Structures are given as structure tokens and as C-alpha cells.
Amino acid sequence: MVCGERLVYNDSSSSHSCDYCGLEFTSTIYCPQGHFVCDSCHSTEALDFLSKMAESEKSDSPRDIVETAFRHPSFKFHGPEHHSLVPAALLIAMKNRGLTRTNGEPISADLVREGIRRGAQIPGGFCGTAGNCGACVGAGIAVALYIGSTPTKGPERKSAHIATITALEMVTDGLIRCCKRSSLYGISAATRVLRDSHSVELGPEPPQKSCENWERNRDCAKSDCVFFPDGGE
Prior knowledge:
Layout: E1 8-17, E2 24-30, H1 39-56, H2 62-71, H3 81-96, H4 109-120, H5 126-129, H6 134-147, H7 154-171, H8 179-198
Antiparallel strand pairs: 1-2
């Protein structure tokens, strides 16, 4: 975001001062030129955009909502904003389909924003440092909000976990990180779990060979990725 250099992804954290807000953070991710941008400064504009989408977006397709966000200039190719995008897209789609939560309450813009808030709690680089992936957790967040899961509700907690587990099974493809690919996996997993376990229909899962963003990814896995399109080079 500052100079365009490839970031360093370390296995241990060090202290850095954010070039935008000036606050001090510890992180495993930094620029070799000494620059650093904290998660909040990295993703604030994208999260604001998602919050507006909670009110304005009319699509009832999670995949279409995700692709709209991918095209917005506030969304970097990689970044923690994707952790909020997955639950936002799923909950917006359910809201626009007129679905209600399992307790009968409507799915509101405020509930979408709660999904965005929960996703924003997951730090950048989580997929490589915590044995989990923020976009996959996003699938669990969406299901948890739909069914009202809490730490003291066993069946609901299990269902939210299954959504995350399903996404993680997809993302363990042996490839390096791609926030776009992981977001599509998160959407796919939650769509499947909501359909099979809760009779919620959100349309088809994102199809294979359908990526519209691969040319922007200088680390694209190309034909090793299930979303890489036919005819790509």
C-alpha cells in the first residue's frame, strides 16, 4: 500500500509503526523497505463499503455480492477485509431473499454489520499463522448468526463449526494464500451447510474455472487452482 514491494511473511512477530495512523503494533507481516500498515488502516475503507452494501445491495446471490466487492477499489487483492466479506455476502443474500433467522427474527442490515464486525476481529495473515483461515471462519460466522449460536448452545455451535470445517477442507489444497480463492471456498461451504442442514437455499456454489481476478494475482497458482478459468495463460 505504500511502495508496492512484496511483503515479508515471517514466522515470528516484531514491532512496527503504522505508516498511516502512527500506532505501534506487533506483526509477522511487514515491508522490506520498512513500511507497515496495520489491519485497521488496511481494511477500513473496504469495511465501510461492506457496511453500505448491507443497506444498498439488491442481489440475493452470495457469489455475485462477493464479485461486486472484489471489483471495488477499496478491496486489495489480499487482506483481512475478506474475513468480513464472506459473512457479509451470505447474510446480505439471505436478507434480500426475505429469509428469517431460526428464531423467527428478520435478517437485518444490523445483523449483516455484526457479521462484518466479527470478521474484522480476525487478523491479517491468520491463514498462515494460526492454522485457520479468516475467510473460512467467515462461513462459520454467517451460520452462527443465522442460527443464533453461542458458546452455551451445543447443536448450534456444532453447526457453525461444521461450516468452518467444510471450508477448511476445501482450502487445504496445498497452495499459497489467495484471499479471493479462500472467499469463494467460504461461500461454497456455508451455502452447502445452510442448504443441507437448515434447508436454506442460496443458489449454486461458485463454479469452478470461474475466477475473474487471476490476472491481478502475481502469485496465482493458475491451473492448480480449481477456479482458474479455461483459456487463462
